[in-house]
Write a structure and sequence with these properties.
445 residues, alpha/beta, Rossmann fold, Serine Threonine Protein Phosphatase 5, Tetratricopeptide repeat, 3 domains, six-stranded mixed beta sheet, 17 helices, 9 strands, 49% helix, binds S-adenosylmethionine
């Protein structure tokens, strides 16, 4: 099927780069199903998309990656709460405005609303997304245990039981958040905001469009307002940053409106260290492909076979200890598709084995951002943090690892047969380590 015209429409109207998120396969399946259901050919379908908003909404739903969970990137959210508190303290009589652009199914705005409510901040949240189906789910405000796995216990008071393993957002919180369908390529909603969060949205955009969107978002900020992007947006959209990224965290990239901040200095590459062998770890086997809760980033159709073959080889190389060879293969792979979560996982394991702690941390962070259900990445992140003496982040990783493995409604990890075969073996060991180490005091094992 020739999807060129549909790709073109997604690029032009929504900024989405079908190759970037590798959405080609999902789109092909969607279009095929629609042609059959409607009994029309492809040119008529393209016409229909242009003329019929509901058909277009279906297409957008098929093209987007609505990957989110409560309390995603806690450091960043905590800083956001501090920032809002500071703005409130500076002007206590005024209601604060926050726009969450690209809110998917609502986990992010609800999390921020909880943080604002517990601090008694007068905050109004506008949460938008281009996907009308996602907005309907966000408005319904009903969630399962997997997406709530990271929510700190104190914030569960904002949820009410709503059936088996389901929770519904509290009425009081609902008054704080308004949801609407909005395309970031269209003019912004009216108003000026104290803070705009646009986290983990631009990684799916063409770089030029991502830059234009950032400029548009900044224009919607109040004086000294802040734009907060996701760590993934920065990592994948090289050159987006005008403000400092916070070293050592996956978080808090803020672009303030009026005060241009210094261009970030390129981070020095950590000096390669002689190779300590990796800490106790389940031996990996090869290969990947992103998977995620509602819809994972997907490999692009035209690259599927070669990507899978190269991932196989890279995984086998890691498995046999040939980490340098694996990294060569993985670097090429990541160059062709930045969003291959499992490629980042293998790169993280290879770097960890080589003692390149900084690179390992980055690669593992990318894997976890792209596919949080890929718990082996959390396992290696925990080990990596421990080796660097970063005890608190290590404990967080162990706790997260335990929750990820133990949660019954966790989405299944998708990957190659070799990876899937290895998971049960790793699982027992990872769980035992997580339970043993999650609460232990600072210091080496
Ligand atoms: C991975 S989710 C991020 C959700 C949330 N911000 C977070 O960090 O957890 C990306 C969201 O961006 C939305 N999106 C993609 N293109 C968009 C556009 N042109 N305008 C608005 N939202 C868009 C998708 O529908 C999807 O829900």
């Amino acid at each position: 099927m020739d999807l060129k015209r549909i790709f073109e429409l997604l690029r032009a109207s929504y900024g989405l780069d079908p190759k970037r998120g590798g959405m080609a396969k999902a789109l092909a399946r969607h279009v095929e199903a629609r042609l059959e259901a409607l009994g029309i050919d492809e040119p008529s379908y393209v016409e229909r998309i242009r003329a019929d908003a509901s058909e277009r909404a279906r297409l957008v739903h098929a093209a987007t990656v609505r990957h989110s969970w409560f309390y995603r990137d806690p450091d960043q959210l905590d800083r956001l709460a501090e920032l809002l508190a500071a703005r409130h303290a500076a002007d206590p009589g005024r209601r604060l405005g926050l726009w969450v652009a690209g809110c998917a199914t609502g986990e992010e705005p609800w999390s921020v609303a909880m943080l604002a409510d517990e601090r008694a901040l007068p905050l109004r949240v506008l949460a938008t997304d281009v996907d009308a189906y996602a907005i309907a789910d966000a408005q319904a405000g009903r969630y399962g245990a997997w997406t709530l796995r990271e929510l700190p216990p104190r914030l569960w008071r904002y949820l009410r039981p709503a059936g088996e393993q389901q929770w519904s957002v509290d009425e009081g919180l609902r008054r704080r958040v308004e949801f609407a369908v909005h395309n970031l390529c269209d003019p912004p909603p009216p108003g000026c905001f104290d803070v705009i969060c646009c986290r983990n949205v631009l990684i799916y955009f063409e770089p030029a469009r991502a830059h234009a969107v950032v400029a548009g978002l900044r224009a919607s900020l109040r004086a000294e307002g802040e734009l907060i992007l996701g760590a993934g947006d920065l990592m994948f959209q090289i050159g987006l940053g005008e403000g400092p990224s916070v070293p050592g965290t996956a978080s808090a990239h803020r672009l303030a409106k009026p005060k241009p901040k210094p261009t970030p200095t390129p981070k020095p590459r950590p000096t390669p260290r002689p190779t300590p062998k990796p800490t106790p770890k389940p031996k990996p086997t090869p290969k990947p492909k992103p998977s995620s809760e509602p819809e994972p980033p997907r490999a692009s159709a035209e690259d599927d076979d070669s990507d899978a073959a190269r991932l196989d080889q890279a995984g086998a190389a890691v498995d046999s200890g040939d980490n340098e060879r694996a990294l060569e293969l993985l670097e090429a792979l990541v160059r062709s598709d930045l969003l291959l979560a499992e490629a980042h996982l293998w790169a993280g394991i290879a770097h960890h084995s080589l003692g390149n702690d900084g690179e390992a941390a980055q690669a593992l962070r990318r894997a976890r951002l792209l596919a949080p259900e890929l718990w082996p990445a959390t396992l290696f992140a925990a080990l990596n943090n421990e080796r660097r003496g970063r005890w608190q982040p290590a404990r967080r990783c162990w706790a997260e690892l335990e929750r990820s493995i133990d949660t019954p409604d966790a989405p299944a990890i998708q990957g190659t047969p070799t990876l899937l075969e290895a998971l049960p073996r790793w699982r027992g060991e990872a769980l035992a380590l997580a339970r043993q180490r999650k609460g232990r005091p600072d210091g080496p094992p």
